[in-house]
What does this fold into?
Amino acid sequence: MNAKRKIIIDCDPGIDDTLALMLALSSPELEVIGITVVCGNVPTDIGAENALKVLKFMGRLDIPVYCGEEAPLKRDYISAQDTHGMDGLGESNYPAVTETRAKKDAVNFLINTLKTQKNVSIIAVGPLTNIAKALQKNREVFKNLDEFISMGGSFKSHGNCSPVAEYNYWCDPDAARYVYENLPKKIHMVGLDVTRKIVLTPNILEYMQILDKEKGGFIKKITRFYYDFHWKYERVIGCVINDPLAVAYFINRELCSGFDSYTTVETEGISIGQSVTDSMDFWKKEPNSHVLTEVNQKEFMTMFLNRVFGEDEQEIRKILLQIM
Ligand code: BDR
Ligand code: CA
It folds into this structure.
């Protein structure tokens, strides 16, 4: 068997971040060497507490959690607690973890890890503030980075917090821009064009309960609030789960397709936070991103259910034929 790929998950848990963590922790190809938390869906301390709750639920409290930046680079911080609940886990109010605590200084953890370890990739599923800060402090170490995946932005799809902007880039547009313009590696942009198509429907949630009452129950509990939000504001029955697609795509490139192009992010005005991809090459700039446009939703869901619930892939495909 090939060696496991080492990853750091930079996140703001967050309901869908939690699902991304569950998928990563259940995937034998991955070694999660650390979780860094940034302010986004919830303030950093709440996000770090949630990361620990997920680790405890998955029996992986051995993985270190680091608290990162508590405010965007320049803008005032605006959380997404209207979407994820005040506790960030859909008002599920799971008790705080007492066995261990989150450490400080995610930015230095990122820099030191890249300095001392080879073949580390980062999957970023929150605003890019921690990454931008680390990059500003030490760009050189990012040359050692294996791959960089960012859930954020959108190419043609409408935004989810303004007509054109996706939350992670809108929350800290200056960080997002800085990362796109300075990272010495290509950014795989897993944006709303593809993640919007990943909907956790009531039928799939029901299927999860059948597969495993405990894990299914956990996911049901944390997504209830998210369901209500999606129905109220988007008339979607179910909820869009963006972040686990970034992990799934990292594991299997065949789940999504896209194209290489130059991308940057607007930092001012009515389009603040919008990702701008020069798909027609007006600017004649070297591509800095691989922008995803298509996704195979059924195969994503098959992977998620197989990894997290341990069900056989062929069995899952048969059931998904009925319910997807
Ligand atoms: C992104 O914003 C957050 O609310 C989600 O966790 C996801 O990372 C989607 O726009
Ligand atoms: Ca997130």
Notes: The first helix runs from residue 15 to 25. Residues 132 and 179 are 6 Å apart (CA to CA). Residues 11-12, 14, 16-17, 40-41, 125-126, 243 surround calcium ion (ligand 2) (CB under 6 Å). DSSP finds 13 helices and twelve strands in the chain.
